[in-house]
TrEMBL record, chain A:
Gene Ontology cellular component terms for the protein in this record: plasma membrane
Topology of the protein relative to the lipid bilayer: Multi-pass membrane protein
InterPro entries: BP-dependent_transpt_permease (IPR050366), MetI-like (IPR000515), MetI-like_sf (IPR035906), OppC_N (IPR025966)
Signal peptide: none
Source superkingdom: Bacteria
Location in the cell: Cell membrane
Descriptive protein name: Peptide/nickel transport system permease protein
Organism: Streptomyces wuyuanensis
TM helices/strands, residue ranges: 43-64, 114-141, 153-174, 180-199, 238-261, 290-310
TrEMBL record, chain B:
Keyword Isomerase attributed: no
Name of the molecule in the record: Peptide/nickel transport system ATP-binding protein
Species of origin: Streptomyces wuyuanensis
Region spans: Disordered: 365-445
NCBIfam families per the UniProt record, alphabetical: oligo_HPY (TIGR01727)
A Gene Ontology biological process term: peptide transport
Organism classification: Bacteria, Bacillati, Actinomycetota, Actinomycetes, Kitasatosporales
Length: 320, 445
């Protein structure tokens, strides 16, 4: 009897000891990552830049002082004679070669650029994640047949990765004809193998962890193990990559527009198209190409900063 | 009828080569024919150095790796070849506690989710509320506060995490719990906590354990029966006390001789058998007795040609050695290997933990002066307990037929009169670690 009482009291003591050192509520890793993100300067700068960009893209067109497509000041600009109008009270960023207001065009162009960036990133992310998840799940829990499937999928993505991304985008754009949709698909397709590989690799790394083994020994179904155990732990590099690839997508869309494979309607302002058109007049009107170029760079930088900050915040090695 | 019975269990991993076509070029014989039985309510301890296949065996019982051959009989049903679907039902009855407490818990799940997942999979508890009650009950049993439910694994300490791991196994009310190195990742004081907890749970809930460990003190403390593994097979199996009192297999003898004795007087006179060479690769195990390449009692007949079976020498003491009876009776003398008195004159003022690790290969060839000094002291102060001249041994070691390559170096040393001090390749690094723990772990009871 006395033996039994000492035993229970021992466990009680253990519990007491444990309870004392603990705070009352738990914090998930996501929440902790967010807390770390908030205290990172890089993240804040990136987030501010992105916020400005997004706000401009959404409300910009309503605040544009002039119609972006109207060649209102056509008579004042003579590209052939090297006569351009720079920044002035009426036109903050000056006029382009057809006498349109650059500032209004920049505001309206932001929306196009954001649209292209986000949609093509989503195409790459969703398709890439599907392929990668299938491949990763097959490789970790699918047995021998799964490994075969994984092998086959990975060879195809290798093939896609072997092609230079811009060349791939150009081919897609060339095959599908010229339109904004084409640009988005072309830029998105390039991202697919990157996301696929990333997620697969991350899942493979997680699949070998003890907690996956533990879940198997508990008798949990494989599909559920993939969804509740492996996936949540594999997602952080993909989230980081999504942020970073937004920057790439914007630059690539600009590059496609620059190469003349972008939106065929030249009247719709888009930063990449503007840059490509302004390049011809760089000698006489350098500022005309500066505005879209700087806008693209700053936006891309914003996404990159946030992406890098997220990478640090989500890094398991930094968990305190 | 034992609760869990293993019959000739083999786990072989194919070694693949080639770029396009995976050609099987060989096998790693991780577990190579193990038979053992675990009685209900008892604890079976499995010891062996790292790489001997003990973890693989544990995973094979749970079907986390495929069983190549043999039977794993749980309560009358052979689960080794059950289809995955039927196996899932059996998984409730076989649970595992993992070595790495943090790695075995999903960092993105809170404790409630971790503990209820298995219950949901096996339909224990009608709804989450019922499950939560049950989880709270189990948490109290393993000594965790009830407010742990909403917390995440990284917010707990190592010992607490391991208790969560134990709770995860317990909520399913399993018949057998396989503990794979349950305490080796923990501090010594926490080790005692967890081991005592395991024992208390066994008493109050009637659990059956298969404990896999390399720490001899831990295994002795917790086990009723102990099996010693070497290179994928059992070399000796005996009731815990019998094994520690009189190890019969040469490998077990060497293993036991590595455990320090808490009494410094005895410790200084204790003799240690140091095995030569390394653990052979399980991809290419030696023919005949797996241990014959390193065995200090190796005989010219049988050892290299025939694999010994595990035979009962009386009292449930089973040994897989052709000459176990003769060795026990003292009829056979050692033919190779080193017997080193655990003399520490040269390093007396050194912290014992440092001494325990000083046998590693890198430090074996200490600075010459110290070695010579110790050798001198050793020869004078310590009589060789077996009455064998060290010179004779040195010659044996230099014998061209001596199996291990390390012998050459030792022979050279011996001719310089340094034999007693110089330590050839030690058993295993893990044994080093266990030495450090051995004296402390039981003290924590």
């Amino acid at each position: 009897m006395s033996l039994a009482t000492t035993k229970t009291s021992k466990i009680d003591r253990l519990a007491e000891l444990t309870a004392k050192t603990e705070t009352s509520s738990g914090a998930s890793l996501w929440r902790e990552a967010f807390r770390r993100l908030r205290s990172s300067k890089m993240a804040i700068i990136g987030a501010v830049v992105i916020a400005v960009f997004v706000v401009v893209a959404i409300v910009g067109p309503w605040f544009a002082p002039h119609t972006p497509t109207a060649q209102t000041w056509r008579g004042e600009v003579f590209p052939n004679q090297g006569k351009f109008i720079g920044a002035r009270g009426e036109n903050w960023f000056g006029l382009d070669h057809l006498g349109r207001d650059m500032f209004s065009r920049m505001l309206v162009g932001a929306r196009q650029t954001l649209l292209v960036g986000v949609v093509s990133m989503l195409i790459g992310l969703i398709l890439g994640a599907l392929v990668g998840a299938l491949s990763g799940a097959a490789a970790t829990l699918g047995g021998r047949a799964g490994r075969r499937l994984d092998d086959a999928i990975m060879r195809v993505t290798d093939l896609m990765l072997a092609l230079p991304s811009l060349l791939l985008a150009v081919s897609v754009a060339a095959v599908m004809g010229q339109s904004l949709t084409t640009v988005m698909i072309a830029v998105g397709v390039v991202q697919i193998p990157i996301f696929a590989r990333l997620l697969r690799g991350s899942m493979l790394a997680q699949g070998g962890k003890d907690y996956v083994l533990a879940a198997r020994s508990l008798g949990i179904r494989k599909r559920r193990i993939v969804l509740t155990q492996i996936m949540p732990n594999s997602l952080s590099p993909v989230i980081v990559q999504a942020t970073l690839s937004l920057a790439t997508a914007i630059i690539e869309a600009a590059a496609l527009s620059y190469l003349g494979l972008g939106n065929p309607d030249p009247a719709v302002p888009e930063w990449g198209v503007m840059l490509s058109q302004a390049q011809r007049f760089f000698d006489n009107a350098p500022m005309m190409s500066m505005y879209p170029a700087v806008a693209i760079i700053v936006t891309a930088l914003g996404f990159t900063l946030l992406g890098e900050a997220m990478r640090e915040a989500l890094d398991p090695k930094l968990r305190g | 009828m034992s609760l869990l019975e293993l019959d000739g269990v083999k786990v072989h991993f194919p070694v693949k080569k080639g770029i396009l076509f995976d050609r099987t070029v060989g096998h790693v014989y991780a577990v190579d024919g193990i038979s053992l039985s675990v009685e209900a309510g008892q604890t079976y301890g499995l010891v062996g150095e790292s790489g001997c296949g003990k973890t693989t065996l544990g995973r094979a019982v749970l079907r986390l790796v495929d069983v190549t051959d043999g039977k794993v009989v749980l309560d009358g049903t052979d689960v080794a070849k059950l289809p995955e679907k039927e196996m899932r039902g059996f998984r409730r009855r076989l649970q595992m506690v993992f070595q790495d407490p943090l790695g075995s818990l999903n960092p993105r799940q809170n404790i409630e989710s971790i503990l209820s997942e298995g219950m949901a999979a096996h339909g224990i508890g009608a709804n989450q509320k019922e499950r939560r009650e049950k989880i709270k009950e189990i948490l109290a049993k393993v000594g965790l506060p009830g407010n742990s439910l909403s917390r995440y694994p990284h917010e707990f300490s190592g010992g607490q995490r391991q208790r969560i791991g134990i709770a995860r196994a317990l909520v399913l009310e399993p018949d057998v719990i396989i503990c794979d190195e349950p305490v080796s990742a923990l501090d010594v004081s926490i080790q005692a906590q967890v081991i005592n907890l395991l024992e208390e749970l066994q008493e109050s809930m009637g659990l059956t354990y298969l404990v896999i460990a390399h720490d001899l003190a831990v295994v002795r403390h917790i086990s009723d029966v102990i099996g010693v593994m070497y290179l994928g097979s059992l070399v000796e199996e005996a009731p815990s006390d019998a094994l520690y009192e009189e190890p019969k297999h040469p490998y077990t003898k060497a293993l036991m001789s590595a455990v320090p004795v808490p009494d410094p007087e005895v410790e200084d006179r204790r003799e240690r058998i140091l095995l030569l060479g390394d653990l052979p690769s399980p991809a290419n195990p030696p023919a005949g007795c797996r241990f014959h390449t390193r065995c200090p009692w190796k005989q010219d007949t049988l050892c290299a040609t025939e694999r010994p079976e595990l035979t009962d020498l009386g009292g449930g003491h089973k040994v897989a050695c052709h000459f176990a009876a003769e060795i026990a009776a003292g009829e056979i003398a050692r033919t190779s290997g080193e017997v080193v008195p655990a003399v520490r004159e040269g390093v007396e003022d050194v912290d014992p933990e440092v001494v325990a690790t000083s046998g590693s290969v890198a430090e074996a060839h200490d600075d010459a002066a110290e070695a010579a000094d110790a050798a001198e002291a050793g020869e004078i102060a310590v009589p060789s307990p077996r009455g064998e001249s060290t010179d004779a041994e040195a010659h044996d070691a230099a014998d061209p037929e001596a199996p291990a390559g390390a012998a050459d170096g030792d022979a050279a040393e011996a001719s310089d009169g340094k034999l007693d001090k110089d330590e050839p390749v030690r058993l295993d690094k893990e044994d080093e670690a266990s030495e450090g723990k051995a004296s402390e772990a039981p003290a924590g009871k």
